[in-house]
Amino acid sequence: MKRKALLFIFEGFCEFEISTAISMLRSTHDLHTFALANHAYRSEAGLNVLPDMTLKEIDGADYDVLIIPGGDLKPIAEAHELFRWVANFAKQGKIIAAICSGVYVLAKSKVLQDIPYTVTLTKGQREFLGGFQEENYRYQPFVVHGHILTAQGHAFVDFGIELTKMIGELDKETIMDLHDFYHGKKNRRMEEYN
What we know:
The chain is α/β, with parallel strands linked by helices. The protein is 33% helix and 19% strand. It contains seven helices and nine strands. The radius of gyration is 16 Å and the shape is globular. The N and C termini lie far apart (34 Å).
C-alpha cells in the first residue's frame, strides 16, 4: 500500500512550482489535496482545482508528507487554523516541503524557529509579513534541515528531487535518472529503446 502525501491548495497557488515534486511522488505516495474550504480554487495560471478535503477533515496521522506551494499570500495571510495545524504536523517529525512564498506558512507556524531556510520574498517583504528570523535566511536554491525543505520558486526541479531524497524510497541511480530527465539532460528510457 502506498503512503500518503498532502498538497495544500489556495486561491492563486503556483502550480508549476510543485509539478516536479508531485510527479516524482506518484511512485511512492498517493497525493491528496486539501484547502481551507470545500470549493474550487484557481491557480496562478488559471487552473481550477477542487480539493479532496478541507483542513478540518484531515487526519494528520494518515500522512507523512506535506507540500506547500507558493503563490498569492493574500488569501492565506491570516489562516491561523492552518498555521496551528502545520505546527502540529511538524512536531510529529513529518516531512514538510514549502517553496517560494509558501514558506510563509512555515514562518507563521513557527516551524522555522532557529533553523536555516530560504524563501522567494525580499528582506522587506519578510519583515512586513513577520515570523521570519532574518539571521537564519539563506539565499540559495533550497535548504534542507532535518525534515523541513524550503526552496526558491525558480528551483522547483531541485525542490522535487530533494523531496524525493528526503522520502528515501528510491535508489541513487533512479534519483540521478530523474535529475537528468527533469533538468532536460537525457531520458534514459528513450535511450534504451533507440
